[in-house]
Design a protein that fits this description.
The chain is mainly α and about 750 residues long. It has 29 helices and 7 strands. Among the domains are: about 210 residues, Serine Threonine Protein Phosphatase 5, Tetratricopeptide repeat (Alpha Horseshoe); about 100 residues, Beta-Lactamase (2-Layer Sandwich), CATH 3.30.450.20; about 110 residues, no CATH class.
């Protein structure tokens, strides 16, 4: 078998880059391919799945259409060395294949084709499979280099058949890579990525991953406009080539990375890649590739509008070409002309472009960009008519190239389509008789199956509906029972609260001093007649008859309302406060003493008197039962109650967050129970957060707000019955303590 490295040397992805066209030419090729694919879209739709299922190209279906040379004399005519071993057919074939690979790598395609014809004439129609395989693969490489991509794809598929038939893993991985490269050039990026990935997996399984497959995958991602993936695979290819000691291919990858950076507008990074590529080619001693790198460096400099730097690169390229007697490539001529035009030497640029265009063959892709630059140079020189004519020539050549490529694409698609249709017709004829024999039996069986399936579906649907209705009735009954139980509890609590408020109001009215009971938000819950008189004695307010249910701040002058709010907020942790404020009418100033209600709940006893009577002691709302209580027992009950409140509030917040997926801040905003404040630009619920940690719980906790939050969550959140029962149990535990202390 032919050695692997010898075959690897001329693989399409690598050899194509040895004489690769510059970036503008490849971009133009992509544009031409896009026009081709759009022109053939109707044919692709017509083929449908036939193209996807098209059979591989048959290896014996495409013989050489021209006469083969005489095998006795053709080895010397193609230029084999005098010392070449021609003792056997196999050795002669190997020598000729090596000669063909060298010719392809040097860009001498006619000589390479003559060498391959000589190989075919030498080995005959039934050669050893390894020689036949390598001949087929090298013909595919030659077609690929000649931009005959459909023909190259057919050759590569044939080679893949041969390597698969003989289970040569190394050859299969290489052929998959070649097929993927050809599919990429034809615009089938999905197929290209699929085959290249398969090739990479096979190489990894063998533990011998080459840089070419990474390079080809990067090219596909670049065509798919995914620069990040392309860069990643280019870097892996660069690492692999350097590990193999292949400096030339490493330089090609660096050039690709620079072009990718230029496409992304990063000229500085592109220059770094190109300088590294230049150093790599110098170490490899390849001066021709150095000239191509200088073209890229000039392009990067011009992209940064650094004409002076571009001039330095131009002079360096001239020196290399003169020293080694090398012709300037078209890409370098283009950048030199562009720099001369930007320097104001449009005539010199036009002369250079005319010479470069004359040196290129008709129909070359590189001529288009040169003609476009020539039109710009002629326009800069003031010859607008010549510029227009040159631009027309450029467009005409672009149209001709697009038409030729479209014809090749259509021919490839037509061949694939006809082959697929022929195979489908044969398969249809083979199965037609069998289908007719079983058609009646299938119809009968299908009818019975349909009937049975319909009955089963109807029965299952009926059972499902009955089960859902039964479940809905049970859930509705449970919900009604829970609602009735909750309503009964609420009515009992409301009745007890109304009775206690009546008793409290009677107690307050029996006192001569002015006393009010307010909550933590400043809402008046109870007030005796003396307090009503002090708060609004002149009758200006429509609510002067009773401030109960009104905000205490409505009866305070505007200048003192903020002081009142601050005092109320401090009462959660304070034992008593005294402050003066002006009544709303501004006539009388009052002195207020705020003390926590001895029965808890965060309520505040507000004693009022005129500021002029400040020398007399102020009365307090005493608890008649306080002296009879056991202090130690009260303290234990109080700590238990505080712990119960914190556990209840934690359960409320946890249930809210799990059932609604929102935060405690939204609970405070929607329920309107807890105040939302702004702290350092962020919304906070500091009051609620104090009820979530036992150590931060206020001395006078507002347990009614905790219960209101629990009732809000019970009424507005969807939860499992077990969760609802657990939350209700915690509510009942808190209520039990308040009933024992007679706070309800």
């Amino acid at each position: 078998m032919i050695a692997g490295p010898a075959r690897e040397q001329a693989s399409p992805p690598q050899t194509l880059r040895r004489n690769a066209v510059p970036l503008w030419a490849r971009l133009l090729g992509v544009r031409l391919l896009g026009a081709t694919l759009s022109g053939t879209m109707l044919l692709c739709i017509a083929t449908g799945s036939a193209l996807a299922a098209a059979p591989p190209t048959r290896c014996d279906a495409s013989p050489t259409p021209r006469p083969l040379p005489d095998p006795a004399i053709c080895p010397r005519r193609v230029g084999l060395a005098e010392g070449a071993d021609l003792s056997t057919v196999a050795r002669t074939g190997e020598a000729l294949l090596a000669q063909a690979r060298n010719e392809i790598g040097s860009g001498r395609f006619e000589q390479a084709e003559q060498a391959l014809d000589c190989v075919e004439a030498t080995i005959g129609r039934d050669p050893d499979w390894e020689l036949g395989y390598e001949l087929m693969r090298q013909r595919g490489v030659l077609a690929y280099r000649r931009e005959l991509i459909p023909e190259a794809l057919g050759r590569f598929e044939c080679a893949l058949q041969l390597s698969t038939a003989h289970d040569d893993k190394e050859a299969i991985a290489r052929d998959l890579r070649n097929v993927g490269s050809a599919l990429r050039r034809l615009g089938d990026f999905r197929g290209a990525l699929r085959t290249l990935t398969a090739s990479l997996q096979m190489q990894r399984a063998r533990g011998e991953v080459g840089g070419a497959v990474f390079n080809n995958i990067a090219d596909v991602y670049r065509e798919l406009d995914d620069p990040d993936e392309a860069t990643r695979h280019y870097r892996e290819a660069l690492t692999a080539f350097r590990a193999q000691g292949n400096r030339v291919e490493a330089g090609h990858v660096l050039e690709s990375l620079s072009e990718l950076s230029l496409d992304r507008g990063d000229a500085a990074q592109a220059q770094q890649w190109l300088q590294e590529a230049l150093q790599t080619y110098r170490q490899a001693g390849n001066r021709a590739y150095e000239l191509r790198v200088y073209a890229g460096l000039m392009r990067a400099a011009l992209a940064r509008a650094d004409i002076a730097q571009a001039r330095q690169w131009r002079l360096a390229a001239f020196a290399i070409a003169a020293e080694h007697r090398l012709a300037l490539p078209a890409s370098l001529q283009l950048q030199i002309a562009r720099s001369e035009r930007l320097e104001g030497r449009a005539a010199a640029a036009a002369t250079r472009l005319h010479e470069a265009i004359a040196a290129l063959p008709e129909g070359g892709v590189e001529r288009i960009a040169l003609l476009q630059e020539l039109s710009l140079a002629e326009e800069a020189a003031g010859d607008r008519s010549a510029a227009i004519a040159t631009l027309r020539r450029s467009h005409e050549q672009e149209r001709v190239l697009s038409r030729a490529q479209q014809d090749r694409q259509l021919g490839w698609l037509r061949t694939r389509f006809e082959t697929a249709e022929r195979d489908r017709t044969i398969a249809a004829l083979e199965t037609e008789n069998r289908l007719r024999r079983v058609e009646l039996r299938q119809r009968t069986l299908l009818l019975w199956l349909t009937l049975a399936a319909t009955l089963a579906a109807a029965l299952a649907l009926g059972l499902l509906l009955m089960r859902r209705r039964q479940r809905a009735r049970l859930l509705e009954a449970e919900r009604q029972v829970r609602q009735e139980e909750a309503l009964a509890r609420y009515r009992h609590a409301a009745d007890a609260l109304a009775e206690d408020r009546s008793l409290l109001q009677a107690l307050l009215d029996s006192r001569q001093d002015a006393v009010c009971l307010v909550d933590a938000e400043g809402q008046v819950l109870a007030a005796n007649r003396a307090a009503c008189g002090l708060l609004d004695a002149d009758g200006l307010s429509p609510v002067a008859q009773s401030p109960v249910g009104q905000a205490l701040g409505d009866y305070v002058g505007e200048a003192d309302r903020e002081s009142l709010a601050a005092a109320l907020e401090r009462m959660e942790d304070a034992s008593a406060q005294t402050f003066e404020f002006a009544r709303r009418d501004g006539v009388v100033r009052l002195q207020a003493q705020l003390t926590p209600w001895e029965r808890g709940d965060g309520l505040i006893v507000l004693g009022l008197r005129e500021a002029s009577a400040a020398s007399t002691p102020m009365a307090t709302l005493a608890d008649g039962t306080a002296g009879d209580a056991d202090p130690a027992r009260d303290e234990r009950m109080r700590e238990d109650f505080r712990r119960t409140l914190v556990e209840l509030m934690l359960a409320v917040v946890d249930t809210w967050e799990r059932s609604t997926g929102s935060s405690r801040l939204e609970l405070a905003e929607r329920s309107r129970i807890w105040r939302v404040t702004i702290d350092e630009g962020r919304l906070r619920v500091r009051a609620m957060e104090r009820y979530l940690v036992l150590s931060k719980l206020p001395r006078q906790p507002r347990w009614r707000d905790v219960l209101r939050s629990a009732y809000y969550v019970l009424g507005h959140c969807t939860m499992a019955p077990q969760e609802r029962e657990e939350l209700q149990r915690r509510v009942d535990a808190a209520l039990a303590y308040t009933r024992r202390r007679a706070l309800v």
